[in-house]
Amino acid sequence: MTKLPVLTREQVRSVDQTAINEYGIPGVVLMENAGFRAAEIIDHVAPQGSIEVLCGGGNNAGDGYVIARHLQLMSRKVSMICAVPVARLRGDAHINAMIAVRADIPMRFIDQTTSPAKIPDLDHEAAAVVDALLGTGARGPLRGCYRDLVKMANAHPGQRVAIDIPTGLDCDTGEASQPTFIADHTITFVAEKVGFKKNNADEYVGVVHVAGIGVPQKLLKTLPSNAD
Known about the structure:
Layout: H1 9-21, H2 27-45, E1 51-55, H3 59-73, E2 78-82, H4 91-102, E3 107-109, E4 128-132, H5 144-154, E5 159-163, E6 185-189, H6 202-205, E7 207-211, H7 217-220
Parallel strand pairs: 1-2, 1-4, 2-3, 4-5, 5-6, 6-7
Helix pairs in contact: 2-3, 3-4
């Protein structure tokens, strides 16, 4: 197995773009691989019971929709709380959200037309809450419903699982906004992120699982060894 360096925000973006543009792997295939691998890990580590997936509006949310579909196929009871209406999603995230809609995966949507936004209560009977709100590209303090959802998730009695990176944690610096999702497990894609080893980020990432997404070994071998 290729030993990988930790990745910065820009390197994460570069790996994705190179896989898509130079190797011809459609982004939706990478997202499917990521979501499937994450679902496998969640099914393994999460206690028996239902799972609630929190989705934002970008590719991290797209991963969440794939995860929910595969968890359902693994006979898990799944529900979702979505920060962004499906019609406002774009690209691969929209494709997978539409599949989830057609698959009748239970979804509740945050009403952002009100101030403050009206957020559905999390299912307090859920065995685990999955954070697919914001990915490695996010930076700065959380605002609005994202801040409120993270607070609610951190107060939830179930296990907490972050997808790629806990929402609120900076990929490069490891700095945590207030609040930041406090994960028991973080399922990160391709390789660990450089911020995981900085600024006490280990208090937020929990146990880190690295999941491959089908990026060719030839591309992985080009990653700089001094990324950390």
